[in-house]
Amino acid sequence: TPRVFSGVQPTGKLTLGNYLGAVKRFDELQGSGMETIYCVVDMHAITQWQDPAELTRATRLVTASFLACGLDPKRSILFNQSAVPGHAELAWILSCVIRIGWLNRMTQFKDKAGKNREAASAGLYTYPALMAADILLYKATHVPVGDDQKQHLELARDTAAKFNLDYGAPGGAADFFPLPEPLIEGTVTRVMSLRDGSKKMSKSDPSDMSRINLTDDADTIAQKIRKAKTDPEPLPETAEGLAERPEARNLVGIFAALTGRGVADVLGEFAGQGFSAFKPALAEVAVSVLAPIGAEMARLMDDPAEIDRVLADGAARARAVSEPLLEETRRLVGFLPR
Ligand code: TYM
């Protein structure tokens, strides 16, 4: 059966990038007929030190954002990663399948470790093994993510294929793990920084003006858009006219994604106009979509016990789906039956 899995790290606040690149897509997939499993990946978060109290809060906040964006605990399994020990167990097995050479090619490790790679945690280095385990633990077939996760997903596919080769019994388990299909789609798969059109919008950017947070209020959203970097040209007639204009392309893409319209359609309305006209229109659209989400997140955060109940219920269901698959995996590797 087709099955969707994806995860979001509880590090800092969620941004418009997380929303358009991921969580909005998670919501759309709920009606697709595929089973949907969405995870707050708290174990991934600690690959870089997190203040413990802040991690607890951020885990609930990401869950609140899931719910506020329309994820429904009746239609999807929503849970936090550390509540299902199978993720860690399968990550170990897969880290014995993955080759060091594969990990050495991961650009996210290089970016996050910075200059002093020797001082990065071993967990940051083996992060892709845990991510492959997240997906394969459920034999997920489809993984909706933003463009920045593409390389990790290719590694997850390679890992599944190598496990199948290493442990596939003749006539049996040759395709034990399905190769997970990345779903990198939608109008914008990479939302860029509001300050620099060559950098992705990120919750870890030191400048809060570079991003729109799902928790920003209407005035803050409007101010960030007003101050967003642009160029002096009016908007072009066609999408090709945006090719060499990363900031303009980003803002038009955000407008299109938030309104569910095509880029060509948006340009049809605004071609020939400058940003002094476009920015207020974009701010209005952004506030109308994001303000209700922010308000709902705040409301949900007033009742952390209810959030924890949603996560506990999801974790129980996630364990029920994954445990038989994990037991089969153990058997293939040659571990004694439990
Ligand atoms: P994370 O927590 O950095 O981001 C969560 C999701 O948001 C997407 N995203 C963006 N999309 C478009 N534009 C942006 N500026 C932008 N910023 C973030 C990310 O692509 C992602 O889809 N390694 C993952 C979490 C993870 C995972 C998994 C994902 C762990 N296990 C298994 C899928 C399947 C991460 O760090 O995402």
Q: What can you see in these coordinates?
A:
The protein is mainly alpha-helical. The protein folds into two domains: 3-183 and 304-333, Rossmann fold, CATH 3.40.50.620; 208-299, Tyrosyl-Transfer RNA Synthetase, CATH 1.10.240.10. Helix content is 53%, strand content 7%. The chain has a three-stranded parallel β-sheet with strand order 1-2-3. A two-stranded parallel ribbon has the order 4-5. The chain is globular, with a radius of gyration of 21 Å. The mean pLDDT is 95. The structure holds tryptophanyl-5'AMP (TYM). Residues 5-9, 17-18, 21-22, 41, 44, 131, 134-135, 143, 145-146, 148-149, 152, 189-191, 200-201 line the site of tryptophanyl-5'AMP (TYM). It catalyses: tRNA(Trp) + L-tryptophan + ATP = L-tryptophyl-tRNA(Trp) + AMP + diphosphate + H(+). Its main location: cytoplasm. Its EC number is 6.1.1.2. L-tryptophan binds at residue 134.
Short description:
It contains 13 helices and 5 strands. It folds into 2 domains: 3-183 and 304-333, Rossmann fold, CATH 3.40.50.620; 208-299, Tyrosyl-Transfer RNA Synthetase, CATH 1.10.240. It has 338 residues and is mainly alpha-helical.
Distance between the termini: 26 Å
Q: Give the strand content.
A: 5-15%
| Rg measurement, Å | 21 Å
Mean pLDDT: 95
Strand order within the widest beta sheet: 1-2-3
Shape label: globular
The count of DSSP E runs of length 2 or more, i.e. the number of strands, is 5
Report the oligomer.
single chain
Q: Unreliable segments (pLDDT under 50, ≥5 consecutive)?
A: none
- Could you spell the SSE succession in H and E letters? EHEHHEHHHHEHEHHHHH
CATH topology of the largest domain: Rossmann fold
Structurally, how many domains make up the residues? 2
* Helicity level: 40-55%
Bound molecules: tryptophanyl-5'AMP
Under the CATH scheme, the architecture of the largest domain is 3-Layer(aba) Sandwich
Q: Figure out the total of helices.
A: 13
CATH domain class name of the largest domain: Alpha Beta
Structural category is mainly alpha
**CATH homologous superfamily title of the largest domain:** HUPs
Organism: Paralimibaculum aggregatum
Binding site for L-tryptophan: 134
Binding site for ATP: 9-11, 17-18, 146-148, 191, 200-204
Motif ('HIGH' region): 10-18
